[in-house]
């Protein structure tokens, strides 16, 4: 008896060598991400990089004598240190001289500017009673130690002086602010702060004022 064998269609043929349960790697594998090629060496630390720029570090001294010699070599000779100290003293003295002369570059921030210079001239051109407070206060205090019985009188006298100081300070601040507004109409450096600056300078002894006065008592400003 003849058995008729059915032929499979070539279009439905499946490669038996491939396991159908395994997914196709070429179709399912994700595309490789773009990566930056490495430098091939670890990034140096900041301390290591600075050490390379500065050069090799000298080994630590083995003895105290070697350490003292190294310190002397860094500091220089005794003559060099004396010369450096003399230069520093000369620079300080020159800076102080320029400050006392009123050069704006060397003044303290509170004294800088044309407005403050004008206020100093206004105060220095006046004969202020408030400037006598410190000398008179010293005299009264010394007299109280010499004669303890004068304590009540000294206390009363100092209270009277303080009242005069307050009145003169108020008048001086008013005068200074009015003159500054007339001379510098666009300035914002006015008010209580400017009046206090004038009062503090007026309360100092004339020879101890810094910067030094540029005008004499009674001069026109």
UniProtKB/TrEMBL annotation:
Classification via InterPro entries: DUF3043 (IPR021403)
Transmembrane segments: 129-147, 153-173
Pfam families listed in its UniProt record: DUF3043
UniProt-recorded name of the protein: DUF3043 domain-containing protein
Stretches with biased composition (Basic and acidic residues): 1-11, 76-89
Keywords noted in UniProt: Membrane, Transmembrane, Transmembrane helix
Residue ranges, annotated region (Disordered): 1-89
Organism of this sequence: Nocardia rhizosphaerihabitans
